[in-house]
Every structure is written in structure tokens, then in C-alpha cells.
């Protein structure tokens, strides 16, 4: 599952005509060219099938039509707020009996 996802992610980085007839016919680079052709021929073509699409929170917020980083940013701010609240309450407990 992860291998096809990684291959699918690499399809945008691949120039479509990387193996020209001149490069294939030359003797020195034919082994390298064949390795490149083998790698790119294994890449999946077309859109991701519905059975392999991400579901749950990842599919809802990070992949798909509503993809954004807002949930991650909201999580950071919520954790900051919780930490600040705990720190403030501890500081109030410190001042309960005496000042600095």
C-alpha cells in the first residue's frame, strides 16, 4: 500500500519523455536507461482508486477537497492554551500564601 502511494507521489516529478531513442540506442547508457524505464513503468497511472484513498481524519482534513493545515495549526494553539492555563494556575498557587 505504501509503495504505490510513494510511486504515485513521484509521478509529478517525472518528465514524460525521459528515454529518447538516441539515449536508448547508445551502448554506454542503455543499462542506466533501462533501469529508469523499469522504475517509471511501475508507477501507477491515473487517479487513486477509491479503495486506496485515505479515510478518517487524515482523509477528511489533509487529503481531498478540503486539504489544509488548519487542523494542525488549531491543535498547536489548543496545546499552547492548555499549557499556558496550567502554568498560570501553578503561578497562582505560588502566590496563595506569600508574595515574591
UniProtKB/TrEMBL annotation:
TM segment ranges: 67-86
Keywords attached to this entry: Membrane, Transmembrane, Transmembrane helix
Membrane in keyword set: yes
Highest taxon in the source lineage: Eukaryota
InterPro entries named in the record: ATP_synth_F0_fsu_mt_fun
Cited Pfam families: F1F0-ATPsyn_F (PF10791)
Recorded GO MF terms: proton-transporting ATP synthase activity, rotational mechanism
Name of the protein: Uncharacterized protein
Species name: Cutaneotrichosporon cavernicola
Amino acid at each position: 500500500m505504501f509503495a504505490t502511494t510513494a510511486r504515485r507521489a513521484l509521478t509529478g516529478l517525472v518528465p514524460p519523455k525521459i528515454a529518447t531513442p538516441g539515449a536508448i540506442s547508445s551502448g554506454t547508457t542503455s543499462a542506466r536507461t533501462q533501469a529508469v524505464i523499469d522504475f517509471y513503468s511501475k508507477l501507477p497511472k491515473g487517479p487513486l482508486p477509491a479503495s486506496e484513498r485515505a479515510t478518517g481524519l487524515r482523509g477528511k482534513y489533509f487529503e481531498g477537497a478540503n486539504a489544509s493545515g488548519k487542523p494542525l495549526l488549531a491543535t498547536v494553539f489548543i496545546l499552547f492554551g492548555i499549557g499556558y492555563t496550567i502554568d498560570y494556575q501553578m503561578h497562582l498557587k505560588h502566590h496563595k500564601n506569600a508574595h515574591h
